[in-house]
């Protein structure tokens, strides 16, 4: 018997068997058993999916709390640094500073943002007199009682005179957190406390975060001034962090380790989980500013009621229908085979081509249209994987990520669509191709390989490229217009930030800063001479160099002191504002020389050589203190970040007047450049150039505010290939354009 005849006989016997009397119950039993197994699997998947949602929500709550409290630490550290320079601070100045931070708008749950002073018993009377003379006439430390040390509230925002003088050392929880912050020299949060609320006599559950205020690093114990602190309403703070997520999950936050600790927050107060245990529960410890909070999450009955069991129901109903439809499927099997053959005939006549892979990822079939469209013979493709063809064959990735996306999708056995490839035709031409595919599964769901389609889109890609070029040109023109509009809007917005830099950019900062820098140089050089003299290792060249440095530093100190004396007469405590800060006529080169001289010791310590390119006689009428502050910020940034691992480098400062009444000042270095992920956000607040850096991330933000708001100019990252100083390649390059005469 021939093979085709044997096949026909077997197929006939199988058909007769499936139409016999006993076939329906057997087939129905098999289908129902499979349905039960699939429904159970669907239930397990639904259960696993809900568990995954619960775990994601728990992780979201934990991460939100850690992230938000870390943000509060950053703000409080900034406040402590500000107080270290502005101590003591008046109530009105503190209110203006807090308003500049927009605490109530940007941070949820803060009841008050204040300052507490460290007052020993021996200085209590003098402290109370000083506060009364400053304007708080009824000020007194309370509650009454003699203590070794007091920690009274001396400034508060929003203002609440009834809380001024309240001694935080009188409360054990506040005292423990404040002492821990002082000893650890970092922000620390208190245990659960009761806060005075806005309503008279009302209290609310909360916590207080303290950050120590120290006059200067490395000084004596007396340098400790007190604390900056933030009082949080626990309910408002935590509600803003856990409000998003599954509505059927109850979240409780306890102050301390374990569920028995004091309760800070309950998302569903008074609501019980039900008679039976919750479907899912989790207990997570979160470290918050030196304290431990415990998150307890439990599902509520509403969570189980919302579980999606539609797949289980669908499978049960589908199983019954399958038993009936199986008969039709057997009858239609041959018709499907004929239809598949017909489709193949049509496909061979189409413009696209088709391909197939086996379970090992090797190409096993290509439609005839492939060779006609690409000119590549099947023998060059069959038996190879797509990644091999792209890596060493006639195919290549149009985009760098295309081959990675294709390999990733195939490795994960996922469908992919319209991956852009290029084909090098044998005639030397190139075609653009888009490749799509999806996994081929057999009736049991086992992976059999891939089936897909390829399309020649060369004409479409070329047309899109032409359209993109035209679109880019239009967008560039629009971007220029928007940039100009943005600068005008930004300048208007900066008026609201003037109190943020109150007193910082006053012109007196320049001579005083120069004098301090020169004095520091005098101290270092003197110490070096003393050390060499005592060790009898001091050479004549070192002594001569030290004398030149001492003479230059002494001269700079004298000139700076004389300038400071002249400026003190007109000193006013005002914000840096062009409407109130007097304008000064000065020579630009002299200012640049003095600023670089004041920074010389710090730059040399960082192995950075300063180069100045500026002609003399460039007269300006502007704010020299503000300009010196900007140049100092850029120079310090370069010294701290541009030359890692102790490498040396060059910092260049070039100034050139322009025909439009402006002067361009370029500050550039030949260092490692800027990280790509921060270039677009370079002038935003709290953007650090190093993830592990200790800076506040505010230097460039403040520099931009000063340039735009005070000097009425522009500052931008310049993408030029070279500095004005020949031979110095561009690492980071900042261009500042300001008016020569500011009216």
- Mean pLDDT across all residues, rounded? 79
Please give the largest β-sheet: 6 strands, antiparallel
The oligomerization state is single chain
Helicity range: 40-55%
Question: So what's the overall shape?
Answer: flat
Computed over alpha carbons, the radius of gyration is 37 Å
* Cα distance spanning the termini: 109 Å
Q: Count the E strands.
A: 25
Low-confidence stretches: 488-506, 569-579, 721-728
Structural class: alpha+beta
**Count of runs of 4 or more consecutive helical residues:** 18
Task: Report the β-strand fraction as a percent range.
Answer: 15-25%
Task: Explain the overall architecture.
By secondary structure, the protein is of the alpha+beta class. It is built from 18 helices and 25 strands. The strands form 6 sheets. Strands 1, 4, 5, 6, 7 and 8 form a 6-stranded antiparallel β-sheet that branches. A 6-stranded antiparallel β-sheet has the order 14-13-18-17-16-15, with helices on both faces. Strands 20-22-23-25-24 form a 5-stranded mixed β-sheet, covered by helices on one side. Strand 13 (353-357) and strand 14 (363-366) form a beta hairpin. It is flat. The N and C termini lie far apart (109 Å). The model is unreliable at 488-506, 569-579 and 721-728 (pLDDT under 50).
